[in-house]
Every structure is written in structure tokens, then in C-alpha cells.
Amino acid sequence: MNRQSRAPFPLLIILYAIIGLFAGCSSSDRIVLRGAVQFDESHSFTRTLRHFQEKVAEYYGKPIEFELYLNSELGLEKDYFVYMSQGISVDYGIVSPSHMSTFSRAAPLMDVPFLFRNSEHWDKVLESDALGPIVEDVEKQADVKIVGYAGGGTRHLIVNRPVRNMNELENLDIRVMGAPIQTRIFQAITAAPTVIAYSEIYNAIQTGVIDAAENEAAGIQQMKFYEVGPEISLTAHTITVRPIAFSGKTFRRLPEDLQAAILKAGREAGRFGRELESSEDSAILAKMEEEEKLRTHEFVERDELLRRAEPVLSEYAQEIGAGDVLARIRAIR
Q: What is the pLDDT of residues 70-121, one digit of tens each?
């Protein structure tokens, strides 16, 4: 099944919900865990979840079966998270922090711009327990366990002219995502943010409605944004965090040795996913530049971007009850 074959979607969801009552079911000789992903086998998320499955089976050492539904067959990430919370249909998946916000106000902190100083800081944070309070809040509020951290896509500015410093950035008309914190942070760094639907970005830059957008390499390639915004400003303003999530209700039904295997496999799959996505991200960008589809420009005043974003990020963290988490992240060197 693919995206085009989802016409009877409500009926499918009812069917999968019924089937999902037995997700994570176990008997003396059979356990079946069901995962879901929006993409095909080639995507880094799918490959990360396959690695997770392999490691769970390895560490458990007993018969276990996995069913991984691809290409949005069971809906979107926001749906998977609800299903995991309810303990139906989906036992595990990779979910953007923004889709956890209905349950946990603090979760979106993991994905805000300028949270990490650089890729080394990002990786150290994810290997530490700095995000522990958010993990605990998600588990308490949604009954979903975060067992690992994938991600690694680095978001830069996609512009129709070179932007290399604060002077060139000032009043840049740029498309941002709908979350208010995105607008606040881009205003703080002197850009002029506008919320526009993702599907409208290409046309908006082409027609001069905006001068820029922001995305990671895979998005630039897939949507051919380089055709209208060939000047890529390497701001590295966001390095993505994509938690590997597991249903708490399913987890509690499983044998203790399988629970331990899931926790260990989650950490390892997270590392695998981060290495995979970050390396592919840089390779995609380099390939497009080699093919002369785009040109990259170092942003020479990135420290100034971090300085201007810092108070806005601090205020936001306090608003969502994650001030202590932000302090822990900043303390890691």
C-alpha cells in the first residue's frame, strides 16, 4: 500500500485499531511488535527502525516478530504517537517532538532553532541525560517511552541571493514553520519571518513573495528549492532530534528481558540513525553543489546569531516549563 491507496483510510484505521489491540501480544512462544513510518525502505528513518528491530532480536535472543508498516500506511507521525499513547496499532516509531506537544508542553524544546552550538554539542547532549525531564514528562503525560534519539538533519537558509553576515541577513523575507517560537527567534536574528504553507515555498520564492526559506538537504533536494533559492547560507540553525518512541502500554506487557533489550536497542539505534542521517545530509548537499545546482556560503557571524537567539530561547523554555532542561543543555561542553 502507498500514499495513493489510502482512500478508505477511516475504515483502515478502525481495522488496524482492532488488530492493534493485540499489538505487542505475547504467548509462550510468540511476540509480535508493530512499527510505522511515513517513508519507504530507502529513508533513514526506516533504516533506523530496521536496525532497532535487529538489535532487539539480537539482545532478546528468543523468538520475536516485527511488522513495520511503510509509506504512511497507518497515517502520519502525529497519528502514530496517539496510537502508541493509546496502546493500539503502533508499538514503535520515530516521531518529531512537535507531534508530542499535545501531551507534553516541554517536548518541542528538542527541536527549536539555535538549541545546539554545533554538531558536537548536539551529539553530546543526546548521549547525556540532559533531556531526562522531558523524557519523563512525555512518559507521564502520554504513556510513551523515548528509547533513543535519531535525527541529524541540519537546517540552513535557502536564499535567492548570498547571505553571509548580519548585514545581508537583516530584514530577509523568510518563510518559517507555523510554531510561534520560530517566528520569535527569526525576528530576534533580524530576519523578517512569514508563515507560509510548505507546499507554497517554491512558488513564493519564485514570484518574489519571499526571498528565502529554511530546510535540510533532503528537503532542498526533494522539493527542488535550489531552482529558486540556489544560495545556501550555512547557518546550521537547527540540528534535528527525532526520538525513537515506544508505547508504554505495550512495554509493560512484555517480559522483563525483552524490556531491557528494547531499551538497549533504542540507544544503539538512535546512534545509528544520527550517524546515518547526518552523513547523508552533508553528502546530499555536497553532491548538489558539485552538480552546480546550488552554492553554499559560510555564515561568518554565527556566534552573533546564537547570542541574539539566546534570550528568546530562554524565555520560551521558561514558558513551557523547561528552563532547567535548557540550563542542562547549555552546561554541556
A: 999 999 999 999 999 999 999 999 999 999 999 999 999 999 999 999 999 9
Q: Do 124 and 17 share a structural domain?
A: yes
Whether 181 and 212 share a structural domain? yes
Q: Looking at residue 283, what is its pLDDT?
A: 96
State how far the alpha carbon of 105 is from the alpha carbons of 75, 85, 97, 133, 229, in Å: 23, 16, 10, 12, 34
Domain identity same for 8 and 98: yes
Full DSSP string of 296-327: EEE-TTHHHHHHHHHHHHHHHHHHTT-HHHHH
Number of independent structural domains in the chain: 2
Residue with cell 508530542: 100
Global confidence as pTM: 0.88
Which of the 8 DSSP states describes residue 224?
T
pLDDT tens for residues 276-304? 999 999 999 999 999 999 999 999 999 99
Let me know whether 126 and 86 are in one domain: yes
Q: Count how many Cα atoms sit within 13 Å of the Cα of residue 312 in the half-sphere of its side chain.
A: 20
DSSP annotation of 333: -
Domain containing residue 230: CATH number: 3.40.190.170
Domain that holds residue 62: 3-150+242-279
Reference 246, options 313, 148, 169; nearest CA is: 148
In this structure, the answer to whether residues 206 and 165 fall within a common structural domain is yes
pLDDT of residue 179: 87
Q: What is the DSSP string of 126-178?
A: HHTTTTHHHHHHHHHHH-EEEEEEEEEEEEEEEESS---SHHHHTT-EEEE-S
Grid coordinates standing for 278? 547526518
